[in-house]
Design goal:
Blueprint lengths: L9 H12 L5 E8 L5 E8 L5 H14 L12 H9 L5 E4 L2 H10 L2 E5 L5 E4 L29 H11 L5 E8 L5 E8 L5 H12 L9 H8 L11 E3 L2 H10 L2 E5 L5 E4 L17 H30 L7 H10 L7 H21 L2 H21 L5 H15 L4 H21 L1 H17 L1 E2 L2 E2 L52
Antiparallel strand pairs: 1-2, 2-4, 3-5, 4-5, 6-7, 7-9, 8-10, 9-10, 11-12
Protein name: Spore germination protein KA
Family: Belongs to the GerABKA family.
GO biological process, one term: spore germination
Length: 503
């Protein structure tokens, strides 16, 4: 925007705004007179739909136009400050001579007011646009935890965090990203716990972003990842305020993006994607069992179809004789090799899952269930696939649903195809080689300098009490050392272990 300051003539200011915003029908211009300010003419500019009509009347027009008994001399040096203190009933009023700042506030939902002969504009908070009410999380359901979730308003989301963390050191650093959208972003962290090196690196990466639009937190995620070509996400996404607050208290940073109900958590480690909020609301024995169950689901979702291809096509001697004969008899008449069978069923299942997501919810659920039953049964009866393969593909798909982080399940679905193709070409060598390749890739990943598989490092003993095993809450005295938190202890050094009374 060209360098332009506020004019003392109302018509000049009005024409400048019209020149910048064009003849948009939602930009409203309201001219009025202020009796208490020497009957000066004034101009209020706001965008219909972003402001509340009640706010415009109650905090701006009625107080300024109805007070005739009071008088403020416009020639005094602090006359505008007197007018703001006596005539405007608003939670926030600022002044500026810079038209860029004024127009940015106007497009964000504020009202800007110009007064004749005054070379400053007032920014009055009148935001009153419609927003979605708080509701239960749709993708991260919890049995015992909180039932609220983030929404599309950045201020509502920061309030949800403030309600849970009433710490003096909680910070919300604000910035704007996107040359045209000017999207508000907030970085939430606890100043006395967060790793300052990670915070500095995050700010550097955000400041390097030069893009027209940021419409969702996914835009930011893609722009700041360490390894953008990796299938595995290095930033966690959540819609649960309690999970975000737990991450902040661990020493992590969350990124809140306006107009997005999903916040970003960083840095992360791989095993964090297999931890659910319910793990911290249930007994530690149950949480540990469920985490190992999810690890088993991880292995099954990636390997079941490949194991079937490997055993049927290359290594029949590894099967018990009765089972090998049953598989051979069930595949009698199947014209395709096992690798094509598996690929056909995997692709069909992915198509049904995608169709179920994109269709209206009542119809999508029916398509997912009925389609799987009908197509699977029809494919077996037609002699295109064997019945054991249908069981394997179904088990692989169900296992992928057991992983709490939905973004990670996408990665595992694609990884499954890679392992399947390698196994279909090279047999057990391809199966083992692809597994080793994926493991080495995970070992090479970093999330803002943090090792992706670092919590299983035996040197980092403080990080192992909350990975595959969930220790009791009173036993987790320290934060994980892998994140580099400034404060090591999260509770008293003496511990809070409950004990029976002696008598």
């Amino acid at each position: 925007m060209e360098d332009r300051v506020v004019s003392t003539q109302l018509d000049n200011n009005k024409n400048f705004i019209k020149g910048k915003l064009g003849g948009s029908g939602d930009v409203m211009y309201r001219e009025f007179t202020i009796p208490m300010f020497g009957d000066k003419n004034a101009l209020a500019v706001y965008i219909d739909g972003l402001v509340g009509a009640k706010e415009i009347d109650d905090i701006l027009l009625r107080p300024l136009m109805s007070r005739k008994n009071e008088s403020i001399n416009p020639q005094e040096n602090n006359s505008l400050d007197q007018l703001i203190s006596k005539g405007i009933i608003s939670k926030s009023v600022n002044t500026s001579k810079d038209f860029e700042k004024l127009l940015d506030s106007l497009l964000a939902g504020d009202t800007i007011v110009f007064i004749d002969t005054i070379d400053q504009g007032m920014i009055i908070s009148t935001r009153g646009f419609q927003m979605r009410s708080l509701a239960e999380p749709s993708n991260e359901a919890s049995i015992r935890g909180a039932k609220d979730s983030f929404i599309e308003s950045i201020r509502a989301n920061t309030a949800l965090i403030r309600r849970r963390i009433r710490d003096y050191d909680l910070r919300f650093d604000s910035l704007k990203v996107g040359k045209r959208t000017k999207t508000d972003i907030a970085l939430a962290y606890i100043d006395s716990i967060v790793n300052k090196d990670v915070l500095k690196e995050l700010n550097d990466r955000l400041n390097r972003i030069d893009i027209d639009a940021v419409l969702d937190s996914a835009y930011i995620e893609e722009m700041i990842e360490d390894s953008p070509f990796s299938l595995f996400p290095q930033i966690e996404v959540t819609e649960r305020p309690d999970k975000a607050c737990a991450s902040i208290l661990e020493g992590k940073i969350i990124i809140i993006v306006d107009n997005s109900p999903f916040v970003l958590i960083l840095p992360v480690v791989f095993w964090q994607f297999f931890q659910a909020s319910d793990d911290y609301y249930e007994r530690f024995q149950i949480a540990t069992f469920l985490r190992w169950l999810r690890v088993c689901a991880l292995v099954m979702s990636m390997t079941l179809s490949s194991i079937y291809v490997m055993l049927v096509s290359f290594h029949q001697e590894m099967l018990p004789t009765p089972l090998a004969l049953n598989i051979a008899s069930s595949r009698e008449g199947v014209p395709f090799p096992s690798i094509l069978e598996a690929l056909f069923m995997e692709v069909m299942f992915e198509l049904m899952r995608e169709a179920g997501l994109r269709m209206p919810k009542p119809i999508g659920q029916a398509v997912g269930i009925v389609g799987a039953l009908v197509i699977g049964e029809a494919a077996v009866n037609a002699g295109l696939v064997g019945p054991l393969l249908v069981i394997m593909v179904a088990g692989s798909a169900i296992s992928s649903f057991a992983i709490p982080a939905y973004s990670t399940s996408y990665s595992l679905r694609l990884t499954r195809f890679f392992i399947l193709i390698c196994t279909g070409i090279f047999g057990i060598l391809g199966f083992l080689g692809s597994g080793i390749f994926i493991t080495l890739h995970l070992l090479s990943l970093r999330s803002f300098g943090v090792q992706f598989l670092g919590t299983l490092d035996p040197v980092l003993s403080r990080g192992r009490r909350d990975t595959l095993f969930k220790a009791p809450l009173w036993a987790m005295k320290k934060r994980s050392s892998i994140y580099g938190s400034q404060e090591a202890y999260r509770q008293s050094k003496e511990g809070n272990k409950p004990e029976k009374p002696k008598k």
